[in-house]
Amino acid sequence: MALTVAEVTQAVAGTSQKELVLLLVLVVLLALVGVAAIFLIEQLQPVEKPDYLPYYPPYPPPEMPSVEEPETPEEVHTQDNLEDCWSATTVPHPICSCDDLQNIQTHLDWSYAVQNDIDFSKCAQSYTTGSGFIPIGSDSSRFEGALDGKGHTLSGLYMYNPDYPGTGTGILRYIGSDGVVKDLKLADVTSYGVDHVGTLASRNYGKVEHCSATGAITGTDYGGTHGGLVAVNYGRIDRSFANVSVNGNHNGGLVSHNGGTIIDCYALGNVGAYGGNGGLVHNNVGTIINSYATGDASGGWDGNAGGLAGTNQGNISNSFSIGTATHQTNPPGGLVGLSDDGSKITNCYYYKPAGRSLPCVGSNKGIAECENIPTLGYFYDTSNLPMSMWDFDNVWIANGSFPVLR
In this predicted model, what pLDDT tens digit does every residue of 324-355 receive, in sequence order? Predict the structure, then answer.
């Protein structure tokens, strides 16, 4: 109930000074409480927020330099990057390391692609000591897949197989009739075995295309056959070469025994020991076309020796030889030692400088068209036979010396 002015005046008049002061203090406190209450009520009211919060950049805004986003490089395998990349799901299955290559043994019908150069000296010590790399496959389990080297090099390969006659030595023991190996380079290979010793393969019944090998081969068996790339060929080898020294019995610079086709190939290494030898092949019962050899062939008391072939029982055409040939018992030939019954040599040439008495064919029982050439430079000129019959647009390159493969 509100008080009148008269009632307040009467109450104040009847109040002592002390009580009046207390009354004023009480009034002031009540006023402060009221102000505080009003403030709190206002703070508790909801505040409407804007739909967005404006951004005020610094002034002036800084100028940011333009930076090109770097491209992510593809993975590059080098000789220092020999981690396994074996994959059962990727086709062709990748080969990146010594272990990957050895694992081909587990699936002889797969397709493989080498992803990088492989230096065997950077792999486990077991690959360069003891037996080294274990040749893949056997007569009953042949390689029927495909191995694409992609132009890469396997270097320092070491195979030591002295106690197992009949098994053969090479990365692949047997390439089956459906097997294909292409675009693979082998460098500084050491291959040691009893018989049928090669670098790439012991026996080929399939296709070897655009492959090469350098290194050394030693065969210990008297009846063995040893070749710089393949020991025994009953398939096809084309656009391939070897620069391998081959020692043993029945040796060939590229192939020892050829019962298939060799086309557009060459061999540079020397061959020799105690049997029959040939700069390109030891014994040919198949076909050799557009090929040559430059190494020397030295034979012993068995077989025959020739600069290109020790013995020819098949056909050889458009080919030449440069090196010399010697044999202890049978007449050697600058191109072929013995050209047997039913054999044929067509459009072939042999380098015979002044003072060299070696005939083109040591003993001829077949048909032999072989011409002696007295100057080495003749074979550097691609307009001369037999090089003028070769394909220098797609297969061969003239480089001022002997032709080389593309």
Answer: 999 988 999 999 999 999 999 999 999 999 99
Tell me if residue 115 falls in helix, strand or coil. Answer: coil
Phi, psi of 125, rounded to the nearest 5 degrees? -60, -25
- Spell out a b/e string for 35-63, using b for 16 or more CB atoms within 10 Å of the CB, else e: eeeeeeeeeeeeeeeeeeeeeeeeeeeee
Tokens linked to 79: 């000789």
CA 211 to chain CA mean position, Å: 11
Q: How far apart are CA 386 and CA 206, in angstroms?
A: 28
Judge whether 270 and 277 are in contact, CB under 8 Å: no
Q: What is the largest CA-CA distance in the chain?
A: 164
Q: Please write the tens of the pLDDT for every residue from 70-102.
A: 343 333 334 444 688 999 999 999 999 999 999
Percent of the chain with pLDDT over 70: 79
- Where is pLDDT greater, at 66 or 230? 230
| pLDDT 10s digits, 172-203 | 999 999 999 999 999 999 999 988 999 999 99
Report the pLDDT averaged over residues 252-268.
98
Two tokens, residue 222: 């008297």
Q: How many other CB atoms are found less than 10 A from the CB of residue 147?
A: 27
pTM of the model: 0.80
- Find, among 284, 254, 274, the residue nearest to 405 by Cα: 254
Alpha-carbon gap, residue 323 to 204, rounded angstroms: 27
Alpha-carbon torsion 230, 335, 378, 348, what sign? negative
How many Å apart are CA 295 and CA 111, to the nearest integer? 35
Give the residue from 384, 315, 379 showing the smallest Cα distance to 351.
379
Task: Determine the Cα–Cα distance for residues 199 and 155; give it in Å rounded to an integer.
Answer: 11
Determine the 3-state secondary structure of 37 from DSSP.
helix
Sketch out the chain's domains with CATH numbers.
93-405 (2.160.20.110)
Q: Is 175 within 8 Å of 201 (Cβ atoms)?
A: yes
In the predicted model, what is the mean pLDDT of residues 145-158? 98
The CB-side HSE value for 367 (13 A sphere, CA atoms) comes to 9
Give the residue among 244, 227, 356 at the shortest CA–CA distance from 284.
Answer: 227
Nearest to 185, CA basis, from 250, 232, 117, 131: 117
The residues that bridge with 248 in the sheet, in sequence order, are: 273
